[in-house]
């Protein structure tokens, strides 16, 4: 029979066991081994059945067992130690509290998804896992972060396979009362709420739930409340589901409602108000509009409010292609803002202007969330060096006239949270070598460029660890594969072959990620005969574990999965290659440590970062990857392999895939497998072990989320906090007024004449100096409003300056009768080879974060003096 009503019955813990509740509700248990061990000892069978979820464990353990534990003095001592340690962790000073640079009092971090633990399934892929790792690392470092997201009642879908290998989706209903969450409560005990105005006088209401991620509160907004109509209740139904208006409402709730939730949380708890707002991708971009509206209520006009908001906002883009950005119909956005809907105090046209694609090739009829994110943030970054470069090129139209490398988008390469992703066996090996405290510090705070202590671990210990982890993966794969085949309709009698799937002594390759086409799940299948030879090689076989989900609406991705599953179902190779459905955090934590090689073969440069290989590396797994994302930045042949790319313009897609697949097969056959199976005098694969050692020594410190968060604090959060403090109502008004004046007058700014003393002919000697004399017309502007620069460097075959360096010139006379000024300065010829220079005029103000901020510049015309510059060959 089916229940007509569902509710949660909470256990009543004996007084002596009350700290268990505190430990269960703080998600630090998900990366703290001692806390997990404590919960496992409560009831090992219930712990296994709960999937390692303390909240579910405490809801299922018997009252009799709890009574026994309340009298167990040994257990109570352990409980006291772990609870005290959590309190010290939450309240004590950490890295952030030692900073002397006046970092922000608090940072609000917004993301559409957060991957904290499998027990809180609110993530779909890399963006969410990165956000979860960001929160955990911030907690470890003591950064006063407040996370903000949505609570999806169905989370992301669960994946299974049909008999013929087609992906099937299931959406389990999540009860917040059964998750590691507590309601944020008002002082009268009612649940805290936020609401948004909708067209037609309707309201969208949302409750605020709180997850505690170590020291970091994570606020999740939930629209499934009785006051909402059925449509509004479904706004937070599932991650990345629904049509365009559904997505728009999700993003309005995340951004606008999220700011309101932060204000409520700070009011109720006394937490410091954020000085910096960080939006992880464009989904939360509307947060800037809400903050402008707040300032308008305090008396600022829109332009001054925009300046103040921009100063304290950081925007991180994760997509390397325009197609990956949320874009809404302009009229749809207009319907949801203005007098009859949300933010009635702000002119709708000002809102629409923030998201308009005003650049060449843009569509003026769409509202671009990334464009709005960049216009509302004074600081922006990509998530690897290569992705920063790609982002500067992709968004360069917002800064017309500037070279792509001057576009104000920097990069902070992603990192991963080592305590979450490193196998306990790896941690224990490190602890034996240098001590538990030093090992934990190295994995959380980082700070060293090398983990030199790894050099002292004996080869035999490393190899024994690697084989043990591989063996654990083999057992895990067999268990999951059997469950998958039963879901596909197979009977137990058909599954005897699974006991022989994978071999703990065979080179094991992992490939697990989302399945959009650019990640090329099936590149390994381009030549199936050759792959089969590698899998079945009599002396140097390989085995491959594959996992991944396609978006429910992506039939192309589903076909890729089906193609791979059908190959893996072949009785000739099914003991050597497997596809595991329902890839998620729990599976990943077993998969990364157990693989010897982590494979990644995206289309370059479409992988923004690709952090799965980082997690594998922290467990001593070697990377075999296309030079994309983070691997392009940190690859060295000492500890991995680079798959050559065939990305020339003359190569079509099929030809490119054939060439790169052939290169992959060659690497596996000629370099990877021989290195793994080669044995030295002691019977160990000495050269392979050395590569593992190099991976841990050199990559380990780089790939840490602790390193990433420290970079955000030093390079983005602290400068943003300073700018936020500088932009008080008076200076915000000053900045807005100055920008308006400069924009209005810029059409008259021009370079009239350029000349150089002792101008060279076609050659000049290194170390020589030219004296430049430039006449400029500033129109209604004054020298204090601009900077006149000489820009020089090598020139390419089309006379474009590359690797440019700029030096300011100084005004020496003016204005003359026609209002023109003369600027002069020396230009050193400090580089050999083809060389050139030009001059330009840029706006200049003490409150600008970048000379390119306004997207304005003036350069010589072809008729000006020496033209656009001088070239020396």
Automatic annotation (TrEMBL):
Which keywords accompany this UniProt record? Allosteric enzyme, Carbohydrate metabolism, Glycosyltransferase, Pyridoxal phosphate, Transferase
Domain DUF3417 span(s) in chain numbering = 13-120
What name does UniProt use for this protein? glycogen phosphorylase
* EC category name: transferase
Q: Which reaction does it catalyse?
A: [(1->4)-alpha-D-glucosyl](n) + phosphate = [(1->4)-alpha-D-glucosyl](n-1) + alpha-D-glucose 1-phosphate
Task: List the InterPro entries.
Answer: Agluc_phsphrylas, Glyco_trans_35, Glycogen/Maltodextrin_Phosph, Glycogen_phosphorylase_DUF3417, Pyridoxal_P_attach_site
Q: Known PROSITE patterns for this protein?
A: PHOSPHORYLASE
Described purpose of this protein according to its UniProt entry:
Phosphorylase is an important allosteric enzyme in carbohydrate metabolism. Enzymes from different sources differ in their regulatory mechanisms and in their natural substrates. However, all known phosphorylases share catalytic and structural properties.
Name the protein family: Belongs to the glycogen phosphorylase family.
**Pfam families named among the record's database cross-references:** DUF3417 (PF11897), Phosphorylase (PF00343)
Question: Record's superkingdom?
Answer: Bacteria
Q: Which cofactor does it need?
A: pyridoxal 5'-phosphate
Name the Enzyme Commission number(s) assigned to this protein: 2.4.1.1
SUPFAM superfamilies, per database record: UDP-Glycosyltransferase/glycogen phosphorylase
């Amino acid at each position: 029979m089916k229940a007509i009503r569902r509710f949660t019955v909470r256990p009543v813990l004996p007084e002596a066991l009350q700290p268990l509740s505190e430990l269960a509700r703080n998600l630090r248990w998900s990366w703290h081994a001692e806390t997990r061990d404590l919960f496992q000892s409560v009831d090992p069978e219930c712990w296994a059945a709960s999937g390692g979820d303390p909240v579910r464990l405490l809801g299922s353990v018997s009252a009799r067992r709890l009574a026994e534990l309340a009298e167990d003095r040994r257990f109570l001592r352990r409980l006291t130690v772990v609870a005290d340690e959590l309190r010290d962790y939450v309240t004590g000073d950490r890295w952030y509290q030692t900073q002397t640079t006046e970092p922000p009092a608090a940072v609000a971090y917004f993301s559409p998804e957060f991957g904290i633990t499998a027990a809180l399934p609110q993530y779909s892929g890399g963006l969410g896992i990165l956000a979860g790792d960001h929160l955990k690392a911030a907690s470890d470092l003591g950064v006063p972060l407040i996370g903000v997201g949505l609570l999806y009642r169905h989370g992301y879908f669960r994946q299974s396979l049909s008999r013929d290998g087609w992906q099937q989706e299931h959406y389990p209903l999540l009860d917040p009362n059964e998750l590691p969450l507590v309601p944020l409560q008002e002082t009268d005990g009612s649940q805290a709420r936020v609401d948004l105005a909708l067209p037609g006088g309707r309201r969208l209401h949302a409750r605020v739930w709180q997850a505690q991620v170590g020291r970091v509160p994570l606020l999740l907004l939930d629209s499934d409340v009785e006051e909402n109509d059925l449509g509004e209740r479904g706004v937070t139904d599932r991650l990345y589901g629904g049509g365009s208006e559904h997505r728009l409402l999700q993003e309005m709730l995340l951004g606008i409602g999220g700011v309101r939730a932060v204000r409520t949380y700070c009011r109720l708890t006394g937490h410091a108000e954020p000085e910096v707002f960080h939006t992880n991708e464009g989904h939360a971009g509307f947060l800037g509009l809400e903050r402008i509206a707040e300032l308008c209520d305090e008396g600022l006009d829109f332009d001054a409010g925009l300046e103040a908001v921009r100063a304290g906002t950081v925007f991180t883009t994760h997509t390397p292609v325009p197609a990956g950005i949320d874009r809404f119909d302009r009229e749809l956005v207009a319907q949801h803002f203005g007098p009859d809907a949300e933010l009635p105090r702000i002119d709708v046209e000002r809102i629409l202007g923030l998201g308009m694609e005003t650049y060449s090739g843009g569509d003026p009829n769409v509202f671009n969330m990334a464009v709005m994110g960049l216009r509302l943030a004074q600081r922006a970054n990509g998530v690897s060096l290569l992705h920063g470069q790609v982002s500067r090129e992709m968004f360069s139209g917002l800064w017309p006239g500037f070279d792509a490398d001057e576009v104000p988008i920097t990069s902070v390469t992603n990192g991963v949270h080592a305590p979450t992703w490193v196998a306990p066996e790896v941690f224990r090996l490190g602890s034996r070598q240098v001590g538990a405290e030093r090992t934990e510090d190295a994995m959380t705070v980082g700070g060293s460029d090398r983990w030199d202590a790894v050099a002292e671990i004996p080869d035999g210990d490393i190899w024994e660890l690697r084989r043990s982890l591989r063996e654990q993966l083999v057992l895990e794969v067999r268990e999951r594969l059997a469950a998958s085949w039963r879901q596909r309709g197979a009977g137990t009698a058909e599954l005897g072959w699974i006991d022989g799937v994978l071999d703990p002594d065979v080179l094991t390759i992992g490939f697990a990620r989302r399945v959009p086409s650019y990640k090329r799940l099936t590149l390994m299948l381009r030549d199936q005969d050759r792959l089969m030879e590698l899998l079945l090689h009599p002396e140097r076989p390989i085995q491959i574990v594959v996992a991944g989900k396609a978006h429910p609406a992506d039939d192309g991705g589903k076909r890729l999965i089906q193609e791979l599953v059908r190959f893996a179902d072949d009785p000739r190779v099914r003991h050597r290659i497997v596809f595991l459905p329902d890839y998620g955090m729990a599976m990943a934590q077993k998969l990364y440590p157990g693989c010897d090689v982590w494979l990644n073969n995206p289309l370059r440069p479409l992988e923004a970062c690709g952090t799965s290989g980082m997690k594998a590396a922290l467990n001593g797994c070697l990377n075999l990857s296309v030079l994309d994302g983070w691997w392009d930045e940190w690859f060295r042949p000492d500890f991995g392999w680079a798959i050559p790319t065939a990305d020339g313009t003359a190569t079509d897609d099929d030809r490119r895939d054939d060439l790169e697949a052939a290169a992959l097969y060659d690497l596996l056959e000629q370099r990877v497998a021989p290195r793994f199976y080669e044995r030295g005098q002691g019977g160990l694969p000495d050269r392979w072990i050395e590569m593992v050692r190099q991976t841990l020594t050199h990559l380990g410190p780089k790939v840490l989320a602790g390193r990433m968060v420290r970079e955000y604090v030093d390079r983005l959060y602290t400068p943003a906090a300073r700018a936020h403090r500088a932009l008080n109502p008076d200076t915000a008004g000053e900045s807005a007024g100055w920008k308006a004046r400069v924009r209005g007058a810029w059409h008259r700014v021009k370079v009239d004449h350029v000349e150089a003393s002792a101008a060279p002919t076609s050659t000049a000697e290194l170390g020589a100096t030219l004296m430049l004399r430039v006449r400029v017309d500033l129109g209604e502007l004054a020298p204090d409003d601009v900077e006149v620069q000489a820009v020089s460097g090598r020139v390419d075959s089309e006379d474009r300056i590359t690797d440019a360096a700029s030096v300011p010139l100084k005004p020496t006379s003016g204005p003359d009768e026609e209002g023109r000024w003369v600027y002069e300065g020396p230009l050193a010829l400090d580089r050999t080879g083809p060389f050139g220079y030009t001059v330009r005029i840029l706006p200049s103000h003490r409150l600008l974060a970048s000379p390119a901020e306004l997207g304005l510049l003036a350069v010589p015309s072809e008729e000006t003096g020496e033209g656009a510059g001088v070239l020396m060959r």
